[in-house]
Amino acid sequence: MTNSESPSAEVQGLRRELASQRQALLASLLVSAWMVEARDPYTGGHLWRVARMAHALALESGSTPREASRIAMAGFLHDLGKVGIPDAILRKPGKLSDEEFATVKTHPRVGARMLSGHPLADLVVGVIHHHHEMPYGRGYPMGLVGAEIPHDARLVGICDAFDAMTSTRPYRAGMPIAKSLDSIESALGRQFDQALGATFVRMGRAGAFDAVVGHSDEGIPLQHCPACGPTLVRTRSARAGDHLACPACAARFTWARSEQGLQALPTGELASAEELEPGLDRVQIEALVLDWADAIAGH
User: Of the candidates 46, 73, 118, 260, which lies 20 to 30 Å from 221 by C-alpha distance?
Assistant: First the structure.
């Protein structure tokens, strides 16, 4: 290697090191978001679903692939602030009181504060802080109106609301996709951005989200606890014979092979404390970091 080549090699080495550091920072945020999600037994896969739909909607709405990846990343991180909501409220099976809902409404501000000073904050904080704002000014935490709401937050807010509609909760079954799309369409220009919402509805009616709704990863649908409904999340690393727990009722299950792939079979036992620990799909996290590497490159 000549002297003239050495600086280039050194620079490339520094760039690789910086890229590795950025990816480690992103991975730590994704792990934090995953663990926050795991506190609510009925939101398994929510972050992945919102990220997938946000990526698709961003591309369809004219974003570059890099921008779409950044918006998807923000979609995965949008609920970070729920770490500040007590379990008694987060896991409540029925309707929240006004006081309890006021506590829930603090999570966008909490999430924004959590990211204060973080090297990647400006890539995602607008979504985290404003994904519950609404064009007609009745959202929270600031009651922003129309274009005052960041574009990315308006986009992710649609995906977040749709996933909430189509997901099962203890007090109701998830709505069918068609009915949820009708609900969004009826609230365009008020609860949801007119142009982004219309694009989302068109995509949904064309089947763009059929393989996302009710799934926790690519090609991996949520599975059902007989007592609680679709609460069982299969990680990419799950193997036949592994045990898992229903996060809602603590029933113990075993993954077993079938013609449809791995299926969760009840054992008739209660899960151990170790099995009830929130699981972390490191394989999914690593894949997402690689998918979104371009979004943080050079930041």
Answer: 73
Q: Which domain holds residue 255?
A: 220-270
Q: pLDDT digit string (tens) for 156-197?
A: 999 999 999 999 998 899 999 999 999 999 999 999 999 999
Residue 115 tokens, joined: 């990211």
275, part of any domain: no
User: What does the buried/exposed string (b/e) look like for 116-125 if buried means 16 or more CB atoms within 10 Å of the residue's CB?
Assistant: eeeebeebbb
Q: Counting beta carbons within 10 angstroms of the beta carbon of residue 2, is it exposed (0 to 12), middle (13 to 18) or buried (19 or more)?
A: exposed
pLDDT at 39 over 60: yes
**78: burial class by Cβ within 10 Å (0-12, 13-18, 19+)?**
buried
pLDDT in tens, 127-139: 999 999 999 999 9
CB 217 within 8 A of CB 232: no
Number of independent structural domains in the chain: 2
